[in-house]
Design brief:
With 174 residues, the protein is mostly loops. Helix content is 0%, strand content 0%. The termini are far apart. The relative contact order is 0.03.
Length: 174
Protein backbone atom coordinates (compact mmCIF):
# COMPACT_ATOMS: atom_id res chain seq x y z
CA UNK A 1 0.00 0.00 0.00
CA UNK A 2 0.79 3.63 0.26
CA UNK A 3 1.53 6.02 3.07
CA UNK A 4 -0.51 9.08 3.98
CA UNK A 5 0.67 11.72 6.42
CA UNK A 6 -2.04 14.09 7.54
CA UNK A 7 -1.78 16.70 10.27
CA UNK A 8 -3.57 19.88 11.29
CA UNK A 9 -0.32 21.11 12.87
CA UNK A 10 3.07 21.85 11.31
CA UNK A 11 4.94 18.98 9.69
CA UNK A 12 8.75 19.25 9.58
CA UNK A 13 11.06 16.88 7.75
CA UNK A 14 14.61 17.53 8.98
CA UNK A 15 17.78 15.72 7.97
CA UNK A 16 21.46 16.44 8.50
CA UNK A 17 22.13 14.52 5.26
CA UNK A 18 20.51 14.55 1.83
CA UNK A 19 16.76 14.04 1.34
CA UNK A 20 15.54 12.50 -1.92
CA UNK A 21 11.99 12.06 -3.19
CA UNK A 22 11.45 9.52 -5.93
CA UNK A 23 8.08 8.76 -7.44
CA UNK A 24 6.98 6.23 -10.02
CA UNK A 25 4.02 8.49 -10.78
CA UNK A 26 3.02 12.08 -10.25
CA UNK A 27 4.39 14.05 -7.29
CA UNK A 28 2.10 16.90 -6.28
CA UNK A 29 3.01 19.58 -3.75
CA UNK A 30 0.05 21.84 -3.03
CA UNK A 31 -0.12 24.62 -0.46
CA UNK A 32 -2.96 26.97 0.40
CA UNK A 33 -0.33 29.42 1.65
CA UNK A 34 3.15 30.35 0.47
CA UNK A 35 5.40 27.59 -0.88
CA UNK A 36 9.09 28.39 -0.48
CA UNK A 37 12.07 26.52 -1.92
CA UNK A 38 15.33 27.80 -0.48
CA UNK A 39 18.88 26.54 -0.58
CA UNK A 40 22.36 27.64 0.46
CA UNK A 41 23.45 26.12 -2.87
CA UNK A 42 22.12 25.86 -6.42
CA UNK A 43 18.39 25.22 -6.93
CA UNK A 44 17.95 22.92 -9.95
CA UNK A 45 14.68 22.34 -11.79
CA UNK A 46 14.69 19.96 -14.74
CA UNK A 47 18.42 19.24 -14.65
CA UNK A 48 18.26 15.46 -15.16
CA UNK A 49 18.83 15.46 -18.94
CA UNK A 50 15.29 14.29 -19.73
CA UNK A 51 13.73 16.46 -22.43
CA UNK A 52 10.45 17.59 -20.86
CA UNK A 53 8.46 20.81 -20.76
CA UNK A 54 8.64 22.89 -17.57
CA UNK A 55 5.38 24.77 -17.01
CA UNK A 56 4.96 27.67 -14.59
CA UNK A 57 1.33 28.66 -14.15
CA UNK A 58 -1.78 27.28 -15.77
CA UNK A 59 -3.23 27.54 -19.21
CA UNK A 60 -4.36 30.87 -20.70
CA UNK A 61 -7.64 30.70 -18.80
CA UNK A 62 -5.75 31.17 -15.53
CA UNK A 63 -3.75 34.24 -14.67
CA UNK A 64 -0.39 33.57 -13.05
CA UNK A 65 2.10 36.38 -12.55
CA UNK A 66 5.72 35.25 -12.54
CA UNK A 67 8.02 37.73 -10.85
CA UNK A 68 11.77 37.28 -11.17
CA UNK A 69 13.95 39.26 -8.78
CA UNK A 70 17.57 38.40 -9.45
CA UNK A 71 20.99 40.01 -9.69
CA UNK A 72 21.31 38.48 -13.17
CA UNK A 73 18.78 36.60 -15.33
CA UNK A 74 20.62 34.44 -17.88
CA UNK A 75 18.40 32.80 -20.49
CA UNK A 76 20.30 30.21 -22.51
CA UNK A 77 18.01 28.47 -24.97
CA UNK A 78 20.70 26.89 -27.13
CA UNK A 79 19.62 26.37 -30.72
CA UNK A 80 15.93 26.43 -29.76
CA UNK A 81 15.84 30.23 -29.53
CA UNK A 82 13.85 32.50 -27.24
CA UNK A 83 10.28 33.53 -28.00
CA UNK A 84 8.22 36.08 -26.07
CA UNK A 85 4.52 36.02 -27.01
CA UNK A 86 1.91 38.16 -25.30
CA UNK A 87 -1.40 39.85 -26.03
CA UNK A 88 -0.12 42.73 -23.88
CA UNK A 89 2.76 45.16 -24.23
CA UNK A 90 6.42 44.10 -24.18
CA UNK A 91 8.52 46.67 -22.35
CA UNK A 92 12.30 46.33 -22.03
CA UNK A 93 13.69 49.06 -19.78
CA UNK A 94 17.00 49.77 -18.09
CA UNK A 95 17.80 52.32 -15.39
CA UNK A 96 21.58 51.92 -15.79
CA UNK A 97 23.31 55.26 -16.47
CA UNK A 98 25.90 53.90 -18.91
CA UNK A 99 26.59 53.43 -22.60
CA UNK A 100 24.79 50.42 -24.09
CA UNK A 101 22.26 50.30 -21.23
CA UNK A 102 20.13 48.27 -23.66
CA UNK A 103 22.22 46.32 -26.16
CA UNK A 104 20.69 44.13 -28.88
CA UNK A 105 23.46 42.10 -30.52
CA UNK A 106 23.72 39.22 -32.94
CA UNK A 107 26.95 37.33 -33.60
CA UNK A 108 25.95 34.22 -35.52
CA UNK A 109 27.63 34.56 -38.90
CA UNK A 110 27.66 36.45 -42.19
CA UNK A 111 23.94 35.85 -42.91
CA UNK A 112 22.70 37.26 -39.58
CA UNK A 113 20.40 40.29 -39.41
CA UNK A 114 18.25 42.22 -36.96
CA UNK A 115 14.73 43.10 -38.03
CA UNK A 116 12.13 45.38 -36.46
CA UNK A 117 8.76 44.59 -38.01
CA UNK A 118 5.39 46.20 -37.40
CA UNK A 119 2.93 43.89 -39.13
CA UNK A 120 -0.34 45.84 -38.92
CA UNK A 121 0.60 49.41 -37.94
CA UNK A 122 -0.64 51.92 -40.53
CA UNK A 123 0.33 55.17 -38.79
CA UNK A 124 3.30 57.38 -39.72
CA UNK A 125 5.02 56.28 -36.49
CA UNK A 126 4.40 52.54 -36.85
CA UNK A 127 8.10 52.12 -36.08
CA UNK A 128 9.61 55.04 -34.22
CA UNK A 129 13.16 55.79 -33.12
CA UNK A 130 13.08 58.50 -30.46
CA UNK A 131 15.81 60.14 -28.39
CA UNK A 132 14.48 62.73 -25.93
CA UNK A 133 17.75 64.56 -25.32
CA UNK A 134 20.41 63.11 -27.64
CA UNK A 135 20.88 62.20 -31.27
CA UNK A 136 20.38 59.05 -33.30
CA UNK A 137 23.37 57.56 -35.11
CA UNK A 138 23.10 55.05 -37.95
CA UNK A 139 26.42 53.46 -38.88
CA UNK A 140 26.94 50.89 -41.63
CA UNK A 141 30.41 49.50 -42.41
CA UNK A 142 29.32 47.92 -45.69
CA UNK A 143 26.27 48.00 -47.91
CA UNK A 144 25.42 51.63 -47.27
CA UNK A 145 22.03 52.86 -46.13
CA UNK A 146 18.94 52.16 -48.21
CA UNK A 147 15.72 54.05 -47.50
CA UNK A 148 12.70 52.79 -49.42
CA UNK A 149 9.39 54.50 -48.71
CA UNK A 150 7.52 53.05 -51.68
CA UNK A 151 4.98 55.46 -53.17
CA UNK A 152 5.00 57.61 -50.02
CA UNK A 153 7.00 60.78 -49.58
CA UNK A 154 10.25 61.20 -47.69
CA UNK A 155 10.61 64.13 -45.28
CA UNK A 156 13.95 65.15 -43.80
CA UNK A 157 13.51 68.11 -41.47
CA UNK A 158 15.93 69.98 -39.25
CA UNK A 159 13.97 72.33 -36.98
CA UNK A 160 16.95 74.31 -35.68
CA UNK A 161 19.93 73.25 -37.76
CA UNK A 162 21.09 72.45 -41.23
CA UNK A 163 20.84 69.33 -43.36
CA UNK A 164 24.14 68.24 -44.92
CA UNK A 165 24.46 65.51 -47.54
CA UNK A 166 28.03 64.86 -48.65
CA UNK A 167 29.95 62.20 -50.52
CA UNK A 168 33.69 61.62 -50.83
CA UNK A 169 33.23 59.46 -53.93
CA UNK A 170 34.90 60.94 -57.04
CA UNK A 171 32.02 60.33 -59.43
CA UNK A 172 29.56 62.58 -61.23
CA UNK A 173 26.67 60.61 -59.73
CA UNK A 174 27.98 61.09 -56.18
Amino acid sequence: GGMDISTVLDFDLVSSAAVAFSSGGTTDIDATGILSINSAGVINIGNDGVAQKITVGGETSTRTEVELNAILANINAGTGGVEVVTTGQVNVASTQDAANAIYLHTNGGVSESIKFHADLGTGAGSIELLSDAGGIAINAAAGGLDVNVGANGFDLDATAGQVNIASTKDDAAA
